[in-house]
Design a protein that fits this description.
There is one protein chain. By secondary structure, the chain is of the alpha/beta class. The protein has 13 helices and 14 strands. The strands form four sheets. A seven-stranded mixed β-sheet has the order 8-7-6-9-10-14-13, with helices on both faces. A three-stranded antiparallel β-sheet has the order 3-5-4. A hairpin with a 2-residue loop joins strand 1 and strand 2. Helix 8 packs parallel to helix 9.
C-alpha cells in the first residue's frame, strides 16, 4: 500500500487477496438479499417515490412486521452492504446517520417495478436452511483463525511498528499463534499472550511468550506496546472505551496501542475493499453484536479513551493497522 494525494492506493497483492476473501464471503450477500426481499426493503424504498431517501429508522417503521430491539443496527449494516453492490443509493447526511434510496438495479426486486421475477429468483435460490445458519458462527471463527495466520505472516514483513519494542502484550490473543509469528521475526521482544483463563490454559508453549489469563475489561498486563487484533469490532463503543482505558493505563508515556481491524468508508463504496469491509460489518453486527468502524469512529474511540494521537499506518489483506499513541 502507498499514499497518493493523501489517499491510500492498494497494491496488486492486497487487491488479489481481498478479491479472494470477498469471494469467500459471497454467501453473505445472498443471505442479506434474501432477508431484504422478505422484509420488503426494496418495496418500501420504491413506494417512497423517485429520489426519496429514508433513514434506517424510517424503514424500520414501515416493515411488514414489528421489529425487535436492535433491529435498526442490523438493518443499517444490511443496507450498507446492498449499497456497495449498487442495489441501493446511500447518502451521508452528517455524522453516523445515513439515508437510503432505491438504485436502478434495486428496482428489479420491488413488486411495483416489475421485480416479481427477480424476487421469485431470490426466494428460490437464496433461501438459507436453518441448520446452515446455526453452524455459521463456528465456521466463521475457524475461518478467522486461518485468515489470521496468513495475515500475520504478511504483517511482520510489511509493518515496521514492532521494531524497538521490548515487551508486546497481545490482548485477546487466543492461544498465542499471532504473537508467536511476531516473536519469530522479532526474537528480542518479550511476548505476553493475554486472554481468558480457560483459553490460555490450552495454549501451547512458545519460546519468548508468557501466557496470562484474566479479564481485559478489568486489567491488562503492562508492556511498552499492546496489540488488539480483530478485537474492537466485537464490541459496542461503550465496551471498547472501557477496554481502551484499561490498555491506556498499562502503557508507559508515549507507549502505543496497535489496533488491527477493518475500516469502513463513511458512505458505501463499490470497490472490492469496501465490499469486503461491508461483508465483515454485517457478520459482526448480525452474529456478534459488534460492528466495523470508520476512520473517524476509530479516532473518536482513541481520543475519548485518553490517547493523544491516532494514525492509520498500513493495510494488509483487508485489515488496517492503526496506532493509538499515549
Amino acid at each position: 500500500m502507498e499514499v497518493v494525494n493523501n489517499k491510500y492506493k492498494h497494491g496488486e497483492d492486497d487487491n488479489a487477496a481481498v478479491t479472494a476473501l470477498a469471494a469467500c464471503g459471497s454467501s453473505i450477500l445472498e443471505m442479506v438479499l434474501y432477508a431484504a426481499v422478505e422484509l420488503d426493503i426494496f418495496q418500501i424504498l420504491s413506494r417512497a417515490g423517485n429520489g426519496a431517501r429514508l433513514s434506517t429508522s424510517d424503514i424500520v417503521s414501515r416493515l411488514p412486521t414489528p421489529a425487535a430491539d436492535g433491529a435498526a443496527v442490523v438493518l443499517d449494516s444490511m443496507l450498507k452492504l446492498l449499497a456497495t453492490h449498487s442495489l441501493l443509493i446511500c447518502e451521508n447526511i452528517g455524522g453516523p446517520e445515513r439515508r437510503y434510496g432505491i438504485a436502478p438495479a434495486g428496482k428489479f426486486f420491488a413488486k411495483d417495478d416489475g421485480g416479481g421475477a427477480a424476487r421469485r429468483f431470490v426466494n428460490t435460490c437464496c433461501s438459507v436452511p436453518k441448520e446452515h445458519q446455526r453452524c455459521q458462527g463456528n465456521k466463521f471463527n475457524e475461518a478467522m483463525r486461518s485468515h489470521s495466520a496468513v495475515l500475520m505472516k504478511k504483517v511482520v514483513k510489511t509493518y515496521g511498528g514492532f521494531e524497538g519494542l521490548s515487551c508486546l502484550v497481545d490482548v485477546g490473543g487466543g492461544t498465542g499463534t499471532a504473537l508467536a509469528t511476531i516473536i519469530s521475526e522479532y526474537p528480542f521482544i518479550r511476548g505476553i499472550n493475554f486472554d481468558l483463563p480457560h483459553i490460555v490454559n490450552t495454549a501451547p508453549y512458545y519460546k519468548g511468550i508468557e501466557h496470562i489469563g484474566g479479564d481485559m475489561f478489568v486489567q491488562v498486563p503492562q508492556g511498552d506496546a499492546i496489540l488488539l487484533k480483530f478485537i474492537l469490532h466485537n464490541w459496542s463503543d461503550e465496551e471498547c472505551e472501557k477496554l481502551l482505558k484499561c490498555c491506556y493505563k498499562s502503557l508507559p508515556n508515549k507507549g502505543k496501542l496497535i489496533v488491527m481491524d477493518s475500516i469502513m468508508p463513511n458512505t458505501p463504496q463499490t470497490d472490492i475493499h469496501a465490499i469486503y469491509a461491508s461483508q465483515m460489518d454485517f457478520v459482526m453486527t448480525a452474529m456478534f453484536g459488534g460492528k466495523e468502524r470508520t476512520h473517524d469512529e476509530f479516532q473518536d474511540l482513541a481520543l475519548n479513551s485518553g490517547f493523544g494521537e491516532f494514525k492509520v499506518v498500513s493495510y494488509v489483506y483487508g485489515m488496517w493497522i492503526m496506532e493509538f499513541i499515549k
